[in-house]
Amino acid sequence: MTGTLYHMDFPLPHQLILFGPPGTSKSYLARTEKSAALLNAKDNNVVPVTFHTDYSYGEFVARLLPLTDGTAITYNMYAGPFIRALAVAYRCLSTAAKDQPPQNVVLLIDEINRGNCAEIFGDVFQLLDRGDDGWSSYEISVSELTIKALNAELGRDEATSKPLPADVLTQLDNRRLRLPPNLFLIATMNTSDESVFFMDSAFKRRWNFEFCPVGFPSHFPVEQATATVTTAPVRDWATVLNALNAFILAECPSRNLDDKLIGPWFIKAKAEPTLATQYKDTMAELTKASKGVTVANSGRDNSDKFDKKLVEFAKTLAKPVQDRIFAFAEYNESSTHNKLRAIAYDLNSSYYLSTKHQRGSDRVIEVFLEGLGKLSSGIATHKISQADIHGKLFLYLWDSVFDRDKSPLAKKLGVQTADLRTFGQFVEKADLFIERLFEVETPAHPVTTENVA
């Protein structure tokens, strides 16, 4: 290609596979950090597809399908995600400003190893060799029907339709395809799954692979890392997961330990209920009590009663929740009146301000109650549910990590392997197993003549 060459610094390899253990944010990274941030490819410039065992070349590239209209049957060529992504990339070539790189386009393939890549890619495999300019090093010949499907996709956006570069038009007239430099293929691969298709070395060498490790990076959402798993004692998701991965590294007999570890998104934390939803009756009582601050000659007394009612309620809750409430309320225990400094009050008469006082303050008692109701009612703002711990995490340990040898699980629980023959026997000891992850094992002292009686 000579007529459409331009200078480009490619921020990513043109074919990239993100791989690693489950829960390591591969799909999220592909869509955000790789596609959106580095390539600035968003919305319609990202064409997603998920491979599966029955996925075929026709579905991926293009296929002829019947269309029934009454009694008449017609056949149309339908573009698959590969042809759709190619069409978007070609359109971006035609609309790019002179001497400026076109917008990038991403064909996003989730679970690439769940499909038979050799069958799905077919002759498209040849296009994955790229030159220094980003164009495919080799062309492939395609059928007239495939070109028809491509042209149909090219004509979809008539508002921005412009003539394609001359060399691209010549290429299509000759029923040949090449991948342009603004088309990137990003795929994800969960290496721990065994029910996947083999990728041969010829296919893999045309891709760059980037490993996604387990762990909690500095930019990781705090609500996920600090989500509660156990409450007595309180342990969060990051603490439990780090201990669990350390156990897997120490005890799992697999030779591919990276495949057996567990990423921080293996289970997504759920937001805890708010005070307003968890304690509806109490919040209704507080709202009713707040009305008294506007009563003439009783505003201060009723403000004091409101303080007392809120403090009594807070002290019935777990200390982390109590501390959250007091911090929000700016609670000043030593104050004689107006202990909740988050609410504005009358300096002379010490009653809390309400919207009825029309003082122009946004720290009135109604606003305070609204914010109070939105506070989390849990020890942390988010929680990993017990159902997910049992039905996802422990099933994964049983079925994938220690599928061949249950003795490390039995040893950690302090039972005989013969007594741990079913998943039910394992999951009923889930709480004990988590606690045992944090027990420090004391090494046995060797017997010497000095310690023998």
Structure description:
There is one protein chain. This protein is an alpha/beta fold. The chain has 3 domains: 15-211, 3-Layer(aba) Sandwich (Rossmann fold), CATH 3.40.50; 222-271 and 383-436, no CATH class; 275-373, no CATH class. 36% of the residues lie in helices and 13% in strands. It is built from 18 helices and 13 strands. It has helices spanning 26-38, 57-60, 81-95, 117-121, 144-154, 166-173, 201-204, 222-225, 237-251, 275-278, 280-290, 299-314, 319-329, 365-373, 386-401, 407-413, 423-427, 430-436; strands at 15-20, 46-50, 62-69, 72-79, 105-110, 140-141, 176-177, 183-190, 208-211, 228-231, 234-236, 270-271, 382-383. The strands form 5 sheets. A 5-stranded parallel sheet has the order 2-5-8-1-9, with helices on both faces. A two-stranded antiparallel sheet has the order 3-4. A hairpin with a 2-residue loop joins strand 3 (62-69) and strand 4. Helix 3 (81-95) packs across helix 5 (144-154). It is extended. The termini are far apart. The model is unreliable at 1-7 and 447-453 (pLDDT under 50).
